[in-house]
Amino acid sequence: MAQVLLLAASGLARETLESIRGTGDHEVTGILDDNISLHGTKVNGVPVLGGLELAAERTEQLLICAGKGSSRAAIIRRLGLDNERYATHVSAHAVLGSNVHVGTGSIILAGTVATSDIRIGHHVVLMPRVVLTHDDVLSDYSTLAAGAALAGSVHVGREAYLGTNSTVRENLNIGPGSVLGMAAALISDLPAGQTWAGNPARELNTFRSGSQPVQDSHTLSNASLKEATR
Fold first, then answer.
1. What are the b/e assignments for 62-82, b being 16+ CB within 10 Å?
2. 57 φ, ψ to 5°?
3. What is the pTM of this model?
4. What is the pLDDT of residues 46-55, one digit of tens each?
5. I want to staple 140 with a disulfide (CB 3.0 to 4.6 A). Which of 76, 110, 122, 221 is the partner?
């Protein structure tokens, strides 16, 4: 059983720790986090050993547990370590078809279903009960929150974030760095860097009084972004 360090003492780290314990694919020996107030403490029984810079001195494999894709990408750039240093975790309670490719560093939690001919990039995070159908492509550092569901041939861009219980119609493109809000229903392409919400989903600044108040759309955006960085 390979030993692994979790990087970032986040909610995702705690979820990943429990998933690893249930699956038995790794032994988590510690957590690294730059918050010095956590050093010497324990998270769910696992010691926080020090800052992220210790990763280069250790021999364990690494799993990046920052909830936001751009944060995971920043950690990778900062560490500058070889790809072989990074582990991959797939829960024993996920169902992946034989033609599903999972990139290094990705974390796939319980209840996820990926059917056929699907490509999941490096350092992607799939929260519980995500559904991917045929020919979906998830680019590096993308994040799908619990219950997100993609129809066939959807392309999710680098560092994009899909909120809890969001749904995406077939043959759509979700641009790099974009955010799809919780419970949103996407029926057209989502451009890079934009935040969309609602059913049908549209850019937040297009909401007007009479359909949905502007302050409510901002609340939904903030909730999605808080979830992305937990």
1. bbbbbbbbbbbbebbeebeee
2. -90, -15
3. 0.89
4. 999 999 999 9
5. 122
